[in-house]
Amino acid sequence: MDNDPVDTGSPERGDVQPDWDETYDVVVVGAGTGLFAAMAAADAGLKVLLVEKSASFGGSAAMSAGIIWMPGNAVLQEAATGDTRESAESYLDHLVGESAPRERRLSFLEHAPAAVDFLRRSTPLKFMHIPGHPDHHEDLDGASVIGRAIEAKPFNMASLGADRKRVRASDVKAPVPMPITSVDYKWLVLLGRAPWQAVPHAVWRLIQGLGGKLIGRDVVAAGQALVAGLLTGVREAEVDTWRTSPLLDLVTEGDGITGAVVERGGCRIRVRAGRGVILAGGGFENNPVMRRKYQSVALQDGWSVNARENTGDVIRIAERHGAALSAMDQSWWSLGLPPVKEGGTPTFMLAERSQPGSIIVDATGRRFFNESCDHMTAGQIMLGQRGADAVHVPSWLVFDQKYRNRHIFGGQFLPGLPLPRSWYRAGLAHRAATVEALAEQLSMPGLVEGVARFNLLAARGHDDDFGRGDSAHDRYWGDPTNTPNPNLRPLTTAPFHAVQVVPGDFGTCGGITTDGYGRALRGDGSVIDGLYAIGNCAANAFGNTSPQFGATLGLGLTFGWVAARHAASQPVDA
Ligand SMILES: Cc1cc2nc3c(=O)[nH]c(=O)nc-3n(C[C@H](O)[C@H](O)[C@H](O)COP(=O)(O)OP(=O)(O)OC[C@H]3O[C@@H](n4cnc5c(N)ncnc54)[C@H](O)[C@@H]3O)c2cc1C
User: Fold this and answer.
1) What is the mean pLDDT of residues 318-341?
2) How many CA atoms lie within 13 A of 23 on its CB side?
3) How confident is the model at residue 573 (pLDDT cuts 50, 70, 90)?
4) How much of the chain, in percent, has pLDDT values that exceed 90?
5) Are 487 and 393 in contact, with CB atoms under 8 Å apart?
6) 26 C-beta closer than 6 A to ligand 1
7) pLDDT tens across 66-103, in order?
8) Is position 236 within any domain?
9) CB of 150 closer than 6 angstroms to any ligand 1 atom
């Protein structure tokens, strides 16, 4: 049952009582990928409490595109992708190398298929392969060009009843109610260019979404569907859930963790967790002090698209109880437009930096990387994390009117329509009749030369400078009707536009150091009994890399399953 916050009458705020107020086998902290860990623990016969800081379920997972990267799973086999454990292992070995312990990725590969099996049998969700959504680094042995990403099919959230309103809303919404899967999105951004592909997707989703509303259905896709399905599973597994109930502290007895201190209804409640506490409280993306300490002074608050509640609480609490931290300089970087005003939401860019007729330039007006590269690499380059590169914050996405006429921008602004005035007022967007005038507005002496150089290469169809369009990843987000290179076209049609670009993220991915079972480790490598960390509060098992877009959910779900089963296999502490 979902327990709304109540005043339990005891104890008073600030008092930590010596005795337990509640007794469970496992306490899961955070209702993003933690929902899945809670289900898995309950499935193993444990009595489970899930505590969540916010008033809603789902965290960033509910706001996400819901793409999941878990190699070797049955959905991939059924789609005849030919994916094998061996090829995924080779890919990860080449990609991750020494940047994270091998034990973690081997555990991920071993358990991901079983976790997907459990996801399918314990939720009402149906999953599909995302065809042609390639791994980020196709040049590495074992990379898949046909892709290993899967996503949930649209799901009728009305089946949740009262819980429907408790699923965290997404910041990105279609102008009319319609479920948009990742497969749909790829084509919808090309509505003006490939209507024969885009229109059938749009019509079918409109029937499901708008039409469904008329008969009382609420059909959603992406992260909304994933979380609605997980919440259904949580309810069926009879996990107790406390919303608006943040973890405040852990309880240490002897060498291990035996419980959690949770704020509920204004009180501090001590909850015994006989088999362990699974931390799934997200990263520290919205903690500016931690970000500046561990990552970069160039980062500003509000650039992350993830849930605002993710302020690194559980990482700091675990550290106080002896957990080591690693990979703290890393996030699941992505590029985006900063919020127009304080407290606003950033606009992230997916296809925008891959479509032809655009470039990204630094403050001098010159290109400095392959704009279409994967999101992790793009953020690292912009922040100067790759070699001795300079920091390029902010940068500018420069494009011509033809680009604007052809493509949806920021996931929501239809082709041809002007960009919001507030962007211009805030100095985040500029527009001019010539490249020279734009260069002057932006005080970018090199822009004219930079555009001229790019135009020359684009006209020839090959980016000799940075190889944009050379990989399947680049081309996936490009415009297939633009030949010979779906990512390259000269900027020729006035007016010319510039929109500010900064390194945002889909969450930080440095955090608690864990082993192959998701158990928290101390600095000397010893295990903290009874403490697990999964999702973004755990250090990225892929080190400073991202193998594919769905890796973050893939890791959270897999290690949620692994940690829950490990906890279930432990003797109950007396
Ligand atoms: C727009 C967008 C698109 C994305 N697309 C994808 C995608 O397609 N594929 C992918 O793999 N990833 C994607 N991501 C990233 C992904 O959603 C997150 O990285 C992932 O959800 C992380 O899982 P998590 O469980 O660690 O954190 P979250 O899902 O954020 O859940 C953490 C939860 O912990 C709660 N919490 C925080 N502190 C406490 C506390 N003290 N006590 C109790 N609870 C606490 C938070 O309120 C939150 O509900 C996307 C993210 C966004 C925003």
Assistant:
1) 96
2) 6
3) low
4) 85
5) no
6) no
7) 999 999 999 999 999 999 999 999 999 999 999 999 99
8) yes
9) no
- Is 115 domain-assigned? yes
Q: What's the 364 CA to ligand 1 centre distance in angstroms?
A: 36
DSSP run (H or E) holding 204: helix 195-206
Position 319 scores a pLDDT of 98
Residue 559 CB–ligand 1 contact under 6 Å: no
Supply the pLDDT for residue 1: 54
Identify the residue whose C-alpha is closest to ligand 1 atom 53. Answer: 306
Q: What is the number of the ligand 1 atom nearest to the C-alpha of 317?
A: 41
Q: Residues 70, 162: one domain? A: yes
CA distance linking residue 357 with residue 223, whole number of Å: 31
Domain boundary (505, 521, 543) is at: 505
Judgement on whether residues 37 and 106 belong to the same structural domain of the protein = yes
Q: Are residues 314 and 389 in the same domain?
A: no
Ligand 1 centroid to 484 CA: how many Å? 39
Q: Does ligand 1 come within 6 angstroms of the Cβ of 304?
A: no
On whether the CB atoms of residues 562 and 111 are closer than 8 A, the answer is yes
Nearest partner of 485 among 388, 378, 354, judged by Cα: 354
Question: How far does residue 549's CA lie from ligand 1's centre (Å)?
Answer: 14
- Statement to judge: residues 494 and 539 lie in one domain: no
Residues 276 and 403 in one domain: no
Question: What pLDDT does 570 receive?
Answer: 84
Q: Whole-angstrom Cα distance, residue 561 to residue 234?
A: 13
CATH number at 405 reads 3.90.700.10
pLDDT in tens, 170-180: 987 777 889 99
Pocket of ligand 1 contains residue 558 by CB under 6 Å = no
Q: Hey, which of 308, 317, 553, 558 would you mutate to test ligand 1's pocket, going by the most ligand atoms within 8 Å of its Cβ?
A: 553
Q: What is the pTM of this model?
A: 0.95
Is the CB of residue 30 below 6 angstroms from any atom belonging to ligand 1? yes
pLDDT digits (tens, 9 = 90+) for 345-365: 899 888 999 999 999 999 999
**Does residue 553's CB lie within 6 angstroms of at least one atom of ligand 1?**
yes
- Report d(CA 286, CA 306) in Å as an integer: 8
CATH value at residue 282: 3.50.50.60
Specify which residues 277 forms β-bridges with: 27, 531
Is the pLDDT confidence value at 6 over 70? no
Claim to verify: residue 314 and residue 358 sit in the same structural domain: no
Q: Residue 524 sits in which domain range?
A: 30-330+509-574
Tell me the pLDDT tens digit for each residue of 413-464.
Answer: 888 999 999 999 999 999 999 999 999 999 999 999 999 999 999 999 999 9
Same domain for 55 and 120? yes
Ligand 1 center from residue 496 Cα (angstroms):
37
Q: Is residue 4 part of a domain?
A: no
Smallest CA-to-CA distance from 152 within 175, 174, 120, 197 is with 120
Return the axis-axis angle of helices 102-122 and 551-569, rounded to nearest 10°: 90
Whether ligand 1 lies within 6 angstroms of the CB of 38 is answered as no
200: cis peptide before it, omega within 30°? no
Whether 450 is in the pocket of ligand 1, judged by its Cβ within 6 Å, is: no
Q: What is the DSSP letter of 240?
A: E
Our answer on whether the CB atom of 41 is closer than 6 Å to any ligand 1 atom is no
* Boundary-marking domain end, from 505, 538, 561: 505
Q: How far is the CA of 307 from the centre of ligand 1 (A)?
A: 6
Whether pLDDT at 379 is above 90: yes
Q: Whose CA is nearest to atom 4 of ligand 1?
A: 64
Total structural domains within the chain: 2
3 state DSSP class of 342: coil
Residue 401 lies in a domain: yes
Please check whether residues 59 and 161 belong to one and the same domain. Answer: yes
